[in-house]
Hints:
Elements: H1 3-13, H2 15-27, H3 34-40, E1 43-51, E2 57-66, E3 75-80, H4 82-96
Antiparallel strand pairs: 1-2, 1-3
Amino acid sequence: MTPQALAHLAALAWPIPMVVALILVAATRTLRFRVLWCLVSLIGVGAFWMQIDTGRWGFIPLAINLLGPGHMAGFHKAVIPLGAVVAIVAALRARTKPAGS
């Protein structure tokens, strides 16, 4: 598989954990501040980018992206869905918390 194909797959895969986290948080009735957690689930931290023509790539560690990566002509960009991971953990903890706690 070419590096360009891998970059394309990474750019297309970022919304999957974000959408899963959004649905899980919205369905968790015991989670406090659900609207805030829904917003957190759409935050990506860090950005991998690749220039399609040359195959040149890089990583921007301090990039914070809402709703995943942006798009520029000639570039693929993928984010690390850290907000989604944190929101999934919070939702699962709220679901397994004993009643009355």
